[in-house]
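Technical appendix A lists one of the benchmark inputs used to test multi-chain prediction within the project. The record comprises two sequence entries:
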Amino acid sequence: MGKEEFVKEITNIEEDFAKWYTDVVRKAELADYTDTKGCIAIRPYGYAIWENIQKYADKKFKENGVKNVYFPVLIPEDLLQKEKDHVEGFAPEVAWVTEAGGEKLEERYCIRPTSETMFSTLYSKWLKSWRDLPMIYNQWCNVLRWEKETRPFLRSREFLWQEGHTIHETSEEAKKFTMDMLDVYADVIENLLAIPVLKGQKTKKEQFAGADATYTVETLMHDGRALQGGTSHYFAQNFTKPFDVKFQNREGKEEYAYQTSWGISTRLIGAVIMAHGDNRGLKLPPKVAPIQVVIVPVAMQKAGVKEKATELYEALKKNFRMELDLRDNYTPGFKFNDWEMRGVPIRIEIGPRDIENGVAVLVRRDTLEKETVELSNLENRISELLEQIQKDMYEVCLKIRKEKTTVAYSLDEILKNLNENQGYVKTMWCGETECENKVKEVTGAHSRCIPFEQEHLADTCAICGKKATKMIVWGRQY
Amino acid sequence: MGKEEFVKEITNIEEDFAKWYTDVVRKAELADYTDTKGCIAIRPYGYAIWENIQKYADKKFKENGVKNVYFPVLIPEDLLQKEKDHVEGFAPEVAWVTEAGGEKLEERYCIRPTSETMFSTLYSKWLKSWRDLPMIYNQWCNVLRWEKETRPFLRSREFLWQEGHTIHETSEEAKKFTMDMLDVYADVIENLLAIPVLKGQKTKKEQFAGADATYTVETLMHDGRALQGGTSHYFAQNFTKPFDVKFQNREGKEEYAYQTSWGISTRLIGAVIMAHGDNRGLKLPPKVAPIQVVIVPVAMQKAGVKEKATELYEALKKNFRMELDLRDNYTPGFKFNDWEMRGVPIRIEIGPRDIENGVAVLVRRDTLEKETVELSNLENRISELLEQIQKDMYEVCLKIRKEKTTVAYSLDEILKNLNENQGYVKTMWCGETECENKVKEVTGAHSRCIPFEQEHLADTCAICGKKATKMIVWGRQY
């Protein structure tokens, strides 16, 4: 199968981005559909990306004093009911266990859609004194939300995530921790996944059910649609009061603790695919790529080729995540396309002539640039190149984001910009939910956030014309 | 609070082992009960033990070519029904999701009690040719079994585990892989958890629902009761036939694949507690201990003590998992007891006199032996001591196992030995389930396994007197 045929298997990215996306997910064997409606099977190549995200984030969490725990997946119905906004937000999309062990249960259990209620209940049991604070716990687990429309990784009924839940002595400390975790998320997304983030606060309308404030790191996909990368919530005492999470403070008085929660999920795998991919398929940043370098021997049947390729593989795998493609039922051409489709950052081609000359050919997945490298310099050059690719992929995304970020001064202009360009549209805003609803109704866009880095674009709200209080960013979303 | 009072908080291990166990689980803050009946919250100290087990086992798995995946937690009812023995074994203890997203579901989903059915369904979708084999997948996840009697870690309705599921081209390869994974489990339990294992095959009566053969690594607890440490199953084509997992073999003919599955779980945390603990509480083998060394300064208010302790902590934490106890509301005596109860392998005591003399006192948790060590030699000595403790803890367990392993030649004798000694009772056996039922009925013991290392104790079955075919081991179990 030649390149043309091969590429044809993936829908053109400019023609139908949504279909391109699911084609890539399935062809690159990241995930597949299952008999459980709306739930995917994450296959080894997709899961390896998640493991790299976990490893990176978990290390950062632990540097911030986070301790991992595991709490029950089943939440008794009465716990879910305790915080009014929270139950309103989540009850419509939970799954209920009503029978077990051959009997109908007296009380239903929901499968956790998130675990604020479970953590708060346990914190209330354990917390006695200010000396016990802070409690900075996190769990890596599965959650379930019965979404109507699903899409692999982006919106799956079951997904994997980490949910951090912390309680603190003072509101200042809790607020600071909320921000520290947002910084970790920005670090993961920018430095590991090579996607620039927009940091800011969610509006009241968009914030987490039960939160006092929700902060977000927003990302922009190849097609200009936005994707929420991670969120960090400050709860004040919204949960600690109904759940009775209190402690003796330094003055010997009872006080309710201040709480946060924060999460990133397997959605980030979707972000990597959609931020970087192209018509050849996946394009993985080296730091998160399960395979960083693949060796494809050319004229494999010739004497010494397999052996030399294997020798290189053995030497290089000490420092890089390597793959050696010795499949004898595919041509080198097919293999080149196959590994490009799987997004492996560097391909090494080596044939009899190369071996004679003591060289190999390196091909970058991101730019498709080829270079011939002396074998004695191979390891050095791969190191350099992986760093360069990581950096360049970030820069390309940043450039696209700049091109797709516009300013608007009226609702018409927001709509026009989105229709032409998608992307982020910056406007001034009065702060009223009514204007957000209006934008949603007319353009289909949600507010992404009120960026921490504010600009003064005008004096009045682009939607209602009243006095503006903040700059806000709009975008159509995944 | 002095040592006497402190120790009183934990039930005496010889008086009531079951109560001692739950006391230790809760006092050492490994886990706690929750509002979800039969499900525990694994707290940071308990979860850190699990993380160490995961890290060790996952590395070994990957060295054996295992790839991690994640498949749905919800299994449609009709999938569970496909393999007759399997559904009979598991259906009575599953939990059912019958409502979700505000509606009653047309088809119920069970929460996975194990995932043979899900893996088989997906393998049948992906497998085409012998070239796709083997598929060697594993997932680290939660499972649910609606047990009637529960006990933290040992038998919890929800628990964490890894479940490996593999398919192979030939039965020989599958059988070999089943054994390779059993070897990994033996490695984890013996070398990481310092508990000797008894390796063997389960009888038909005790094997996994749907398996062709189940192999096990059995462990013995402090009180002489047995605990199944991990199991590895060979399925032949029992699942691949009903689930249609077939491939074109090298001759171009269709053939059903040969399958295995294997798992270890958070039960192993229970095993560590019950195999090693004593009247002071937990006793953790250094390799799996979340904290390997704790520094407790003495006369902390004296000039330079805190500083010296902190300096040691900073230096040592590069090589060991360290804790520095600077709590100002507890006496050193309380702290000594507290860390002993938490099973930290080595305690460093350092006070003004020690600092003057350039020494510190090391105390081993396993033997309570004290020694004074020059500060310049501290790091070396800790390294040696941790290795020694790991080795000695294994040897102590091995000695107990030897003492608690007896031979019997009649049913009466099996009962007598168990009542006197608990432990393993070796007998000859005819191979009939009827005799197993008899032993269960009379003594309450199950067969542990038919050990790989066979001995010829007699010519006839200890129960029925007919011709013996194998040596078998009996034991009362957790």
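Chain B touches chain A through 55 residues (CB under 8 Å). Residues 405-475 of chain B form a domain with the Translation Initiation Factor IF3 fold (CATH 3.30.110.30). Comparable benchmark entries are summarised in Table A2.
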